[in-house]
Amino acid sequence: MADTTLFRETLLFADLDDASLKAITDASLQRRLRRGDVLFAEGDPPDALYVVESGRIAIANQNFLGRESVVALMEAGDLFGEMGLFDDRGRSAGARALEGSVVTEVPYRPVRALYEADPALLWRVVDVLTSRLRNTDQALADSVFLDVTGRTAKRLLDLARGDDEFLLPVTQEELAGMVGASRERVNKAIASFIRLGWLNQVGRSYRITNREQLTLRAR
Prior knowledge:
CATH topology of the largest domain: Jelly Rolls
Low-confidence stretches: none
CATH class of the largest domain: Mainly Beta
Shape: elongated
Distance between the termini: 44 Å
Oligomer: single chain
CATH architecture of the largest domain: Sandwich
Number of strands: 11
Structural class: alpha+beta
Order of helices and strands: HHEEEEEEHEEHHHEHHEEH
CATH superfamily of the largest domain: Jelly Rolls
Helix content: 40-55%
């Protein structure tokens, strides 16, 4: 059974009363994942949504050659896998752990029962889907208006979370999937930031030395 605090801080369940929240937590289970563990693959029949307790989960698509595009990075407090609640179609993307992670699995059945009993709760679903749409719009704009170097700068700033020193939580291949480019082109962009004096790198440890210029390059 999941901790109710986790759900209170999740957009989809924040407005539930105690009885409704208990119905959700009683039906939920905690899953511990190692790096590389797959929660579900693209096309799998959906039967549950997930809330991240700790760690990072990559939401990704693969083309027929096996090249991966990471469409979203889910971290503590994030919810994913909710689309199947409404269309019963296969998963639109796969989900796997980028590091040791803990997620709470929430079966669709009790969630659907809540919405059938009180359709007004569906406004929270609208909030979640609107947020997804905004993120998709931003990603589309980035792919059109930013080159690989700009997208790399933006993704590094996102992963830094406002810190100047940070440990890259993904591999170079995974970073390339998040940027939407080859690993070679992403590495070339990082090398240019280092050469310009905007960034220092030692292994997976990075230090932003000129945030202003890196931020300008990400626009």
